[in-house]
Amino acid sequence: MEGPKVETLIPRVKSILSVILSLMGDRSVYVRQTANWCFGRICSCVPQGVAGVDFMQQLRKSLFEQSSIAHYACWSISSLATFYGQNKINSPLLRPEIVPDIVKTLLERAEKQDADARVVSACFEAINQLISNGPKDSEAFKKMVNQLLPGWIDRIVDLSRPASSSDHHQNMLAATLSTLNVSLNVLGPHCLDQKSTNRLMDSLIGLGATNQVVIEEALLCISYVCYVVGDNFFNYFRTPQVQALLVKAVDIDNHKNPNLCQVGAAVIGDCLLACTNSIKKSISTDQRLQKFTDEIVRKMLTLILHMDFPLEHKPHLLGTLTDVGIAFGPFWERYTNVAINNTLAELPPDPDTEDVKAMTEIRETLVDMCRATMLAMSEKGALPAFGNFLGNFLKLLQAITKDPFRTEREVKIFLDFIHEMIEDFRSKPNTKSMLAQLKVSTMHDFLTMAISNPNLKPFAQQVFQLFINDFFLCFVVGTVVYFSKKFLIKDKPVKGGKKACGHLFNINLFPNHYTFCVVHDHFLFFLFLFEQPIFMSTLLPKKPQDLTNFYFFAKNINKIILT
Q1: pTM
Q2: Are 132 and 182 in contact (CB under 8 A)?
Q3: d(CA 341, CA 39)
Q4: Contact, 369 vs 323, CB < 8 A?
Q5: Ranges for the Importin subunit beta-1/Transportin-1-like TPR repeats domain (predicted)?
Q6: CB contact set of 393 (below 8 Å; sequence gap of 6+)
Q7: Residue 75 burial by Cβ neighbours in a 10 Å radius (0-12, 13-18, 19+)
Q8: CA nearest 209: which of 238, 251, 167?
Q9: Domains recognised in the chain with CATH numbers
Q10: Most buried of 71, 291, 313, 409, CB within 10 angstroms?
């Protein structure tokens, strides 16, 4: 059911707000609790209703009430900060001269020994919202966040010392790491100096935590450090301590936590991308880095191919393998056979209904991995080796063509890659013959399906045209002429040859005149090349059975209307 519109509620909220604020300080704890919940609800649903009202004094009092009331006070601050930030409203709540005082008050409440996990989390969530929703173009606000940064690092250094393993201590550590991550994200690159980075990384490496939330936040902190220090993180990334921490994060046998594996994989990917330049320079000689990568690739593939590992986490693992390919460049070829063919061949072609979203993400990530592999091989001058993966890629293409749950975005991603692949194959003399491996029936079905989508039709037609231009020239028309010459000159009929020629050059089969002209022009051009010995010896197919694919294509091309 829909309630009244916000515009209707604003004047009503304003009319009762003074009463609610008064009841938030009532003598009865039950009244105070209900009134604070009511104010939190207003801040969440009708934040416009509290504009121009001085509520901070009462919220400060509520913060130091019992946990259930303090939680609602934090909720109010978080909701208002989010609303003002998202709508770019210049509120006193987000002014750089006021935020530090609110942060100090929230920290004092979180540090009280009676603060349970819910209150600690709520206090730091309010701090995070205040920091992340500040005016993005305000240098004064960024300066304020930057001034708070050393304090967060000091707290993490202190909390990471094994002085206490109490729940409150662990909650404070996890929450402080979260706030540091938010601050680094707001400040961006170059906000950490060398000394601060060293102190922080030493604390993260020596953490020794067993609390899963603390471990996840510490791993995410490594990602944000990568983000702000960039390629300089390589000096930390190649240390045994950091590598051991990352390997441990993706070792499912160590912690039995699939979500932690996902976080660890994402962090490894962030590290690789941040350090790409240094990795490419050193990977061929850095045996420690090679050994680390061998272990990471092995663990990623083990989890991806593990039938009991949750499917929804696998796109992130595949994404990490893609990041390895991007960061390692030509050196990625070392892993391609085991990585690409295994992941393309072993993933379930018919996922359960509840796994459809995950399977879509997996297929999209596989395209990224294929693209990274193709680029790596091209850099190394070994692009023909990509032909080893085309068979399994076409199986993936077949799966998406038949999948009734496929998305338009997914089809577009595959179209983009096919377009890039054909362009790359035809741009190099030693890869043009690889066009013949793109089976006509599979490509025909996929492109027909893509063209049937009105939103994708123009681009799908463009890809199909490119496919005709090169595939017909290098393989299809060549096959017909080759076998037709045998049939006409040597008087040795080849089964299917005459029938295929009839399908190709029967004008009745081409309701679209443009398509017929394209095919006809290619045939005339091929007749010119027919007398060139080099062309005949390198491009023409040698097996009579190769005519099958062309016959299928020629027979069915009239189904695709290029208008």
Answers
A1: 0.78
A2: yes
A3: 57
A4: no
A5: 56-440
A6: 344, 370
A7: buried
A8: 167
A9: 1-95 (1.25.10.10), 433-563 (no CATH)
A10: 71
Q: Among 180, 221, 184, 228, which Cα is nearest to 204's? A: 221
For residues 20-41, b (16+ Cβ closer than 10 Å) or e, as one string? bbebbeeeeeeebbbbbbbbbe
Six-digit token pair at 238? Answer: 């190649």
**Within 13 Å, how many C-alpha atoms sit on residue 532's CB side?**
11
Q: Which residues contact 500 (CB under 8 A, 6 or more apart)?
A: 480, 483, 547, 550, 551, 554
Neighbours of 77 (CB within 10 A): 26
Query: HEC profile for 132-200?
Result: HCCCCCCHHHHHHHHHHHHHHHHHHHHHCCCCCCCHHHHHHHHHHHHHHHHHHHHHCCCCCCHHHHHHH
**Residue type at 397?**
L
Q: How far is it between the farthest Cα atoms of the chain?
A: 109
Q: Which of 341, 466, 325, 356 is nearest to 395 (CA)?
A: 341
- Three-class DSSP category at 494: coil
Q: Is the dihedral of CA 549, 555, 558, 560 positive or negative?
A: negative
With beta carbons less than 8 A apart as the criterion, state whether 65 and 35 touch. Answer: no
- Cα dihedral 68, 73, 77, 83, rounded to 10, equals 80
Could you tell me the two tokens for 269?
């990917």
Q: From residue 449, how far is each of 9, 288, 436, 441 by CA, in Å?
A: 50, 48, 21, 12
Instruction: Give Cα separations from 270 to 72, 198, 266, 449 (angstroms).
Output: 36, 19, 6, 36
Report the distance separating Cα 343 and Cα 108, nearest Å: 51
pLDDT digits (tens, 9 = 90+) for 297-349: 999 999 988 878 888 899 999 999 999 999 988 888 888 878 887 887 655 55
